[in-house]
Specification:
This protein is of the alpha/beta class. 38% of the residues lie in helices and 17% in strands. Strands 1, 2, 3, 4, 5, 8, 9, 10, 11 and 12 form a 10-stranded mixed β-sheet that branches. The structure holds ligand PBG.
Length: 326
């Protein structure tokens, strides 16, 4: 039946009826807060600002413990840790050092807030002096299989330090299977893997690289991260990671890839995470500061859209603000 029997506006007429028929819910329990922990920063007030990301700082371990506590108090289920080591080298040895910055921060956060989930980013780019996500061969290419071994070592080291969930973001082939096997061999059979399966070579990682000092010293990441033009290829990556034992599939960035989120959700039926990345955050902050949009409304709209597209979990630097508003 069409108009006038059908009036779509009937279900939009009041806030209560809109609330009743809302299809997508967004709450603090859907959101994960990324934290940058930096070895060179110390003290309870130890914070170092990130110019393009107002409201996000690089933290000392004790500041990270505080920030994690604040996240937990707001109802966020998890934080995602990134480490910035004191020294970087060609092999990214800080990544799989049992006394590395992420390992130390994980122990400290789990001690203070045992119920908060600690998820760790597993990659070499924050730890290598060349900024690539794996080992670089003499010819300048990133060596897939040798990198996978170090990534598996890193994941085991994080899990041994108490990480509840490991999240490989390097985009090497076969790393999810290798990490699963390495964890299982250590008896860490219950540590889930959130695989950054569909991670695109994106301009939107710019502020993160400033924060982590991980801009590649030469070349770019297009020989391992996905071409933004390719949706079918993203799906193949996701399906392969499912075969290799991924527990959750991640799509990243989120806003320019909502179609990929939906396709991955439909094809895998696994829990899907979407990463609302640093550049997406920086855009909103800059536009809000310029008076071009209302930050609160824009953030809720974006996070809701990411959920509507099919994401069960949204990783976002807006998590604390959003949790306060919701
Ligand atoms: C590490 C990694 C990156 C991000 C998450 N893990 C950077 C990159 O691939 O260059 C980006 C996160 C963000 O932009 O917020 N490989």
């Amino acid at each position: 039946m069409a108009f006038p029997a059908t009036r779509m506006r009937r279900l939009r007429s009041t806030a209560s009826v809109r609330d009743l028929v809302r299809e997508t819910r967004l709450g603090p329990h859907d959101l994960v807060l990324p934290l940058f922990v930096e070895a060179a920063v110390s003290g309870a007030n130890g914070r170092r600002a990130i110019a393009s990301m107002p409201g996000v700082d690089r933290l000392s371990i004790s500041a990270a413990v505080q920030e994690a506590g604040a996240a937990h108090a707001l109802g966020l289920p998890a934080v995602l840790l990134f480490g910035i080591p004191e020294h970087k080298d060609a092999e990214g040895s800080g990544a799989y050092d049992d006394e590395g910055i992420v390992q130390l921060a994980t122990r400290a956060i789990k001690d203070a807030h045992p119920e908060l989930l600690v998820m760790t980013d597993v990659c070499l780019c924050e730890y290598t002096d060349h900024g690539h996500c794996g080992l670089v061969r003499a010819d300048g290419a990133v060596d897939n299989d040798a990198s996978v071994e170090l990534l598996a070592r890193t994941a085991v080291s994080h899990a041994r330090a108490g990480a509840d969930i490991v999240a490989p973001s390097d985009m090497m082939d076969g790393r999810v299977g290798a990490i699963r096997a390495a964890l299982d061999e250590e008896g860490l059979v219950d540590t889930p893997i959130v695989a950054y399966s569909a991670k695109f070579a994106s301009a939107f990682y710019g502020p993160f690289r400033e924060a982590a000092g991980s801009t590649p010293a030469f070349g770019d990441r297009r020989a391992y991260q996905l071409d933004p033009a390719n949706g079918d290829e993203a799906l193949r990556e996701a399906l392969l990671d499912v075969q290799e034992g991924a527990d959750v599939i991640m799509v990243k960035p989120a806003l320019a890839y909502l179609d990929v989120i939906r396709r991955v959700k439909d094809a895998t039926r696994l829990p899907v995470a979407a990463y609302n990345v640093s550049g997406e955050y920086a855009m909103v902050k800059a536009a809000a500061a310029a008076g071009a949009l209302d930050e609160r409304t824009a953030v809720i709209e974006m996070l809701t859209s990411i959920r509507r597209a099919g994401a069960d979990i949204v990783i976002t630097y807006h998590a604390k603000d959003a949790a306060t508003w919701l």
